[in-house]
Write a structure and sequence with these properties.
By secondary structure, the chain is α+β, with helices and mostly antiparallel strands. It is 42% helix and 20% strand. Strands 2-1-11-10-7-8 form a six-stranded antiparallel beta sheet, with no helix packed on it. It has a five-stranded mixed beta sheet with strand order 4-3-5-6-9, with no helix packed on it. It is elongated, with a radius of gyration of 22 Å.
Amino acid sequence: MRYRLRFLLQEFDLPRGVTIVGRSVDCHLTIEDPLVSREHARLTIDDDGARIEDLGSRNGVRVNGLIVRGPSPLHDGDRVRIGTQDFVFCSVDSSGRSRAKTTGVLRLCAKCRLPFARETISCPHCAATEQTDEVTVTTHSEDYRATWSIQLIVEALERALTLGRLADAERLVRRAAAQLEELATAGGAVDPQSIDSVAAKAAELALAADDPTWAHWTLELYRRSSSIPALEVTDRLAEATVRHPMALRDPLIGLLDHLHASEAAGSHDEVEALTRLDRTYRLIDGHAPTQSNIRDAPGAS
């Protein structure tokens, strides 16, 4: 029996013996990802089958959403996550054809609203077991692959920000931003949840680095997509705008003018978000930033 790792449209043969996966160019399989350790994981192929083992990496290895603790057997169709990269482990028959399914069905978690494999018992993101009845998506969809990739980057972003690794966080935000831009340019459907997820982390990075660059990008993102930020994003944008009124006043006005003209607000949360953005504009209009302004900004703590 032969084995492969599939990543999007690429497949990597796994020879008998040991395959080391990591960021180092000395690894058998190199992954250029700031959240992948130099030597991240060991894959072993022998007469007993296939196994994967974490080599003491910072961010761990997951198989079907579960953290690997010690050598873990791999089976046809298993999903392996290393860093922000998601691979599918495949068995290959004697003709060289993969026996793994070419598509997979995903359901949305009723709690966190992220997709996961239908055959998985619980959501690997939040451990909830309740699924929605919404239409599922299949992995052969180009839009799905882009959305899934963005979600993986956002997960890595969250870890980088939690650990205070701002340089890694900025590289990841740039990757997520590029994914959104490519999807929009190609005419693909840009998932509003993906926009909010990336925007929340971009705004968080702007606050952590005390740099308005990514808050400016976030305001422009919502203006171009004619959408209203989620409340979490709104509060972070408000705080960033009060900190950097000279840099963010014009893009905030541009977003507000566009949203009011298009009468975009509909739900209660959208109305509230728009109200908070209006309040932020009134707070900074004609005033220099002060500690009192920052403390009184919507969502500031």
